[in-house]
Automatic annotation (TrEMBL):
<dbReference type="InterPro" id="IPR027417">
    <property type="entry name" value="P-loop_NTPase"/>
</dbReference>
<keyword id="KW-0813">Transport</keyword>
<keyword id="KW-0067">ATP-binding</keyword>
<comment type="function">
    <text>Part of the ABC transporter complex HmuTUV involved in hemin import. Responsible for energy coupling to the transport system.</text>
</comment>
<dbReference type="GO" id="GO:0016887">
    <property type="term" value="F:ATP hydrolysis activity"/>
</dbReference>
<keyword id="KW-0547">Nucleotide-binding</keyword>
<keyword id="KW-1278">Translocase</keyword>
<protein>
    <submittedName>
        <fullName>ABC transporter</fullName>
    </submittedName>
</protein>
<dbReference type="InterPro" id="IPR003439">
    <property type="entry name" value="ABC_transporter-like_ATP-bd"/>
</dbReference>
<feature type="domain" description="ABC transporter">
    <location>
        <begin position="4"/>
        <end position="215"/>
    </location>
</feature>
<dbReference type="GO" id="GO:0005524">
    <property type="term" value="F:ATP binding"/>
</dbReference>
<dbReference type="Pfam" id="PF00005">
    <property type="entry name" value="ABC_tran"/>
</dbReference>
<dbReference type="InterPro" id="IPR003593">
    <property type="entry name" value="AAA+_ATPase"/>
</dbReference>
Amino acid sequence: MDAVHLRNLSAAYGGQQVLGPLSLQIQPGERIGLVGRSGAGKSTLLNLLYDQVRDRAALVPQEQGLVQALSVFHNVYMGRLNHYSAWYNLLNLLWPQRRELAVIEPLLERLGIGKKRRSPVAQLSGGQKQRTAVARALFQNAPMLLADEPVSALDGPLAHVVMGFMTEAYDTSVVALHDIDLALAYTTRIVGIQDGQIALDAPSHTLSPADILPLY
């Protein structure tokens, strides 16, 4: 994929500036961790970024964007709805096809929710819903991943499993994370957001948790 150049991004709600103006460049192969306290503007920045690159990005939104009445399989399959014809999508809604199961089932197994394939999303725990949203993004297999707090509901070991899987699947990503240790471990670059502005932008390997904590 080509580099992404964002210039003079800004957002306001209720007449109050909440982000920017700021500029950001994302090079192919960069894994960027967005860090900062809640309300700093990380989610707003991700949403604005997705608006500009949605044709080449898979998104894991903070609210997950799942269809509660549909099964885990169908929610994951929705990651590629635009890849297939309407009749094939309808066929998979009624009777999941072997070709799709062969790809989706291993994803779910690795994420620890293989036994939930047929379960309606409404019956899942918060962590299981998060992993379903991650599986959908992995199945989508886009050039770039955008994820907003994708492991916030997971315990330590499981969070590492999911972050490792996303890192393997996507060379280029922008992931908002509250956990500083995860951000340093699974990204190549840290972008810190404070009061709607970029307050820190540096390679992950040059930083320690003490460098990032002031943003919180």
